[in-house]
Design brief:
Elements: H1 2-10, E1 14-15, E2 21-22, E3 25-28, E4 34-39, H2 49-59, E5 65-70, H3 75-80, H4 119-131, E6 135-140, E7 145-148, H5 153-162, E8 167-169, H6 177-184, E9 189-194, H7 202-218
Parallel strand pairs: 4-5, 4-6, 6-9, 7-8
Antiparallel strand pairs: 1-2, 3-5, 7-9
Helix pairs in contact: 2-7, 5-7
The chain binds zinc ion.
Length: 222
């Protein structure tokens, strides 16, 4: 437990607009070459992935891998059931790659006054800069596909196969977390799992957890 506490202390803990903590949970071996980051929820109106991250935390990481789990990078939106954060910003339009001014506060895809204007997106960037994950998986809803673009396509396609789920290559919207990571860390993969609407059926949760653990063992595909 003492070692676990030290490891947790080594990673930054975020704070949302309303002061809620954003806590990463470290599973497995921090010295492992295969490092995966999983974010259960960034759009607060799309919370289904958090059932998967909860089960993943209980399952742990396979030997030789490290998996870092952030159940919710947008805890205020999750508490309110809103897509955006407490400022009404769509966090997944607030990252500094291909950012564009979109909408106004409260609009579904409002991208914020400038890139990284929000503490939650700044936290995600700080965490990814620290971890340098080979693979980052972001859970969303409700499109029912794994989606990726560019350097993330091969790994995302493999992940979809492991999860027995449809895959599509789709260009990233403006200012997304995945597009930013792809530019900041060439050779890494960052992609989106769009779960269907509603809660994930219990039997299906285990399939997702197995797929995450398997891709952690396999590592990034190029
Ligand atoms: Zn979403």
């Amino acid at each position: 437990m003492r070692l676990l506490a030290l490891l947790l202390a080594a990673l930054p803990i975020g704070s949302s607009v309303d002061g809620r903590a954003i806590r990463p949970v470290v599973l497995g071996d921090p010295a492992a070459a295969h490092r995966v980051l999983v974010v259960g929820c960034i759009h607060g109106s799309e919370p289904a992935g958090m059932a998967i991250t909860r089960r993943l935390i209980a399952a742990g990481a396979p030997a030789g891998t490290e998996i870092v789990v952030v159940p919710a990078v947008n805890p205020d939106g999750c508490a309110r059931g809103t897509r955006g954060n407490a400022h009404g910003v769509d966090l997944n339009r607030n990252f500094p790659s291909n950012w564009s001014a979109i909408g106004h506060p409260g609009d579904l895809q409002y991208s914020g006054p400038h890139p990284l204007s929000e503490p939650e997106s700044r936290y995600a960037v700080a965490l990814i800069e620290r971890l340098r994950p080979q693979i980052t998986i972001w859970f969303h809803q409700p499109q029912g596909i794994v989606r990726a673009w560019g350097q993330s396509v091969a790994t995302a396609r493999r992940f979809a196969a492991l999860a027995r789920y449809p895959y599509r290559s789709i260009e990233w919207p403006y200012g997304t977390a995945s597009n930013w990571q792809n530019h900041r860390f060439p050779g890494t993969a960052s992609f989106v799992v769009e779960l269907p609407p509603g809660p994930v059926p219990t039997a299906r949760i285990g399939v997702w957890v197995r797929a995450v653990r398997e891709i952690a063992v396999e590592g990034v595909r190029r």
